[in-house]
Amino acid sequence: MTYRTPLGRLHNSRIKKIKIEAWAFVPSAKTPVALITVIDPAEASDKSLLWESLDLNVAVKGEFGKWVKVSKDITVPAEATFNSRLSIYLWRNGPVPGPTYLDDIVIRREP
Fold first, then answer.
1. What is the three-class DSSP state of 103?
2. Which superkingdom heads the taxonomic lineage of this protein's source (predicted)?
3. Residue 15 in contact with residue 62, Cβ under 8 Å?
4. Virtual CA dihedral for 12, 39, 101, 21, nearest 10 degrees?
5. At a CB cut-off of 8 Å and minimum separation 6, what does 66 contact?
6. pLDDT digits 0-9 by tens, 77-107
7. How many angstroms separate the CA atoms of 43 and 99, rounded?
8. b/e map of 51-87 (b: 16 or more CB within 10 Å)?
9. Do residues 107 and 58 touch, judged by C-beta distance below 8 A?
10. pLDDT band at 71 (very low <50, low <70, confident <90, very high)
11. By Cβ atoms counted within 10 A, which residue in 81, 84, 91, 105 is the most buried?
C-alpha cells in the first residue's frame, strides 16, 4: 500500500523539511524491508526529485518481533513545488520470512 499526496496538501507554505514517524513491526533480522520516500515532479517524468530509503532492520535497532517507533528526516528538494507528489511505501528487497507491518504514520513539517 502506498500513501500519496501533493506537497501542497501538507501545508499552505513551502515545505523545506519533513519528518516521517511510524510504528514498525519487523519479524526478524532476515526481513529485507525498507520504508521508501519519493517526491516526484508535478509533471510526468522519468526522474524523481527525491528517493530515500529507511532500512527498517537498522531502524528497529535489534528489536525484532515487536512494535518499534521509527522515524526519518527528509530535506525537500528546492525544485519541489506545491504540486510535486509525495509517496511513502514499504519495499521488500528479497524473500521475506513473515509479514512486516507499518502503522500510525505521521508526516510532520519541520522548521
1. strand
2. Bacteria
3. no
4. -50
5. 25
6. 999 999 999 999 999 888 777 789 999 999 9
7. 35
8. ebebebbebbeeebeeebebebebebeeebeeebbbe
9. no
10. very high
11. 84
Residue 75: what residue type?
T
The runs of H, that is alpha helices, within the chain are 56-59
- The pLDDT tens digits for 25-47 are 999 988 889 999 999 998 887 89
Say if residues 72 and 35 touch (Cβ distance below 8 Å): yes
- What are phi and psi for residue 43, nearest 5 degrees? -85, 145
- Cα separation values, 6 from 11, 17, 47, 50, 88, Å: 10, 15, 17, 14, 12
Q: Which residue has the cell 499552505?
A: 12
**What three-state secondary structure class fits 61?**
coil
Alpha-carbon distance 103 to 5, whole Å? Answer: 18
Which residue do the cell numbers 519479524 mark? 27
